From TrEMBL:
Cofactor: FAD
Organism: Actinomycetospora atypica
Coiled-coil portions: none
Residue stretches making up the Acyl-CoA dehydrogenase/oxidase C-terminal domain: 227-378
Name assigned to this protein: Acyl-CoA dehydrogenase family protein
Alphabetized InterPro entries for the sequence: Acyl-CoA_Oxase/DH_mid-dom, Acyl-CoA_Oxase/DH_mid-dom_sf, AcylCo_DH-like_C, AcylCo_DH/oxidase_C, AcylCoA_DH/ox_N, AcylCoA_DH/ox_N_sf, AcylCoA_DH/oxidase_NM_dom_sf, Mycobact_Acyl-CoA_DH
Keyword Oxidoreductase among record annotations: yes
Record has Acetylation as a keyword: no
Keywords (A to Z) from UniProt: FAD, Flavoprotein, Oxidoreductase
Pfam families hit by this protein: Acyl-CoA_dh_1, Acyl-CoA_dh_M, Acyl-CoA_dh_N
Residue stretches making up the Acyl-CoA oxidase/dehydrogenase middle domain: 121-215
Protein family per UniProt: Belongs to the acyl-CoA dehydrogenase family.
Every Acyl-CoA dehydrogenase/oxidase N-terminal domain range: 9-117
Length: 383
């Protein structure tokens, strides 16, 4: 273990030193401009060898450990450098393709995913199948060497910009709902695919509803076995929860540091300010304690686990507590342009507060996480 830690310390110094020499981009708030900047930044990170670090070399990765990946994530955040735009591919879909994909899928799809040449979206949720994902109704019917897909997905991040979609479909309507699902990799340029952005309360339009009208998907784009997509989907979601928790923990800590710096420059040091920052600090310390256990699991070689649901719940609370406390300090003038209550940049903290409300929904709602913990960790009977 000491040798591993020494190696990580050396690796961290290398990453920190190289980052200090790089031109870190400023990220605009306007969504289209933000997307373009972050896509170029992903190519820069790929060229530096900092993406797919824990992936196999055969898939275009570095063949290192999740701990090395965490070092890069932490150093990017500490340097106030943005994450790449393709996180759905990098943190969510890509690891499942690396683990379950055919040689063709891994060779043809993953290098372009890593570099940002191809952006991926995740076609899981539907209008009537969100938290109860296994109730999905998007159908795929075999037709020779193709699947013909019809249905609708919703809350699909970046679908209007994506080249590929990791799509859950029902291929056996007669089977039990968890047993008749397959996992397809769909080219978003296929005839019959329509993506329509949805405006969020943040003002962003990164979510989409996506329609599939008799879309033909080659059989070689099936990930894993037909009707065996549910277990792969669980791997995808588990990977998403672990990666998001570790990344967001550092991002939230840096956000709190930035907010405290703004408050100090303004001289805000009243009881209300100290209490709000104290509550946020405690929530993040709890999250930090939890993620130390997660890091220990990853260091031991553990993969996706029901423990990821505990991570997700603790992250939900910490993220929402942090940004709710900052929003409260902004007071009733928080939405007034050009006003900086207590020296806080209202445009940043209002946006982050509104976005944080989704933390207990995306990646599986808090209710679903509690069910997973109850059944798979505590052994309680299904209700």
């Amino acid at each position: 273990m000491t040798a591993v830690l020494d190696d990580l310390d050396t690796y961290r110094e290398e990453v920190r030193s190289r980052l200090a020499e790089m031109d870190v981009p400023d990220v605009p708030l306007e969504l289209d401009a933000r997307f373009a900047v972050l896509r170029r930044w992903q190519q820069v990170l790929f060229d530096a060898g900092w993406l797919g670090i824990a992936w196999s070399r055969e898939a275009g990765g570095q063949g290192l450990t999740p701990m090395h990946q965490l070092v890069v994530v932490e150093e990017l955040v500490r340097a106030r450098a943005p994450q790449p735009i393709g996180l759905i591919g990098l943190d969510v879909v890509g690891p499942s393709i690396d683990l379950y994909g055919t040689a063709w899928q891994r060779r043809e799809l993953l290098p372009r995913l890593l570099s940002g040449q191809d952006i991926w979206c995740q076609g899981f949720s539907e209008p009537d199948a969100g938290s109860d994902l296994a109730s999905l109704q998007t159908r795929a019917v075999r037709a020779g060497d193709e699947f013909v897909v019809s249905g609708q997905k919703v809350w699909t991040s970046w679908a209007h910009e994506a080249q590929w979609c990791a799509l859950l479909v029902r291929t056996d309507p007669e089977a039990a709902k968890h047993a008749g699902i397959s996992y397809l990799l769909v080219d978003m340029a296929s005839p019959g695919v329509t993506a329509r952005p949805i405006e969020q309360m943040t003002g962003d339009r990164e979510f989409c509803e996506v329609f599939f009208d008799e879309v033909r998907v080659p059989r070689r784009n099936l990930l894993g076995e037909e009707n065996a997509g549910w277990s792969i989907a669980m791997h995808t979601l588990g990977t998403e929860r672990a990666a998001a928790t570790l990344r967001r923990r550092v991002e939230c800590e840096v956000a709190l540091e930035d907010a405290v710096a703004e408050l100090r420059r303004h001289g805000a040091d009243d009881d209300r300010t100290r209490a709000a920052i104290g509550r946020a600090h405690i929530a993040l310390r709890v999250l930090g304690a939890r993620t130390r256990r997660t890091v220990a699991r990853l260091a031991a070689g553990a993969g996706a686990s029901p423990e990821d649901s505990v991570d997700k719940l603790v992250l939900n609370d910490a993220e929402q507590t942090l940004f709710a406390q900052l929003a409260d300090l902004l007071g009733p003038l928080r939405a007034t342009p050009g006003v900086r209550p207590r020296g806080l940049r209202s445009e940043r903290w209002v946006h982050d507060h509104l976005f944080s409300r989704a933390a207990s929904i995306y990646g599986g709602s808090a209710q679903i996480q509690r069910n997973i913990i109850a059944e798979r960790l505590l052994g309680l009977p299904r209700g």
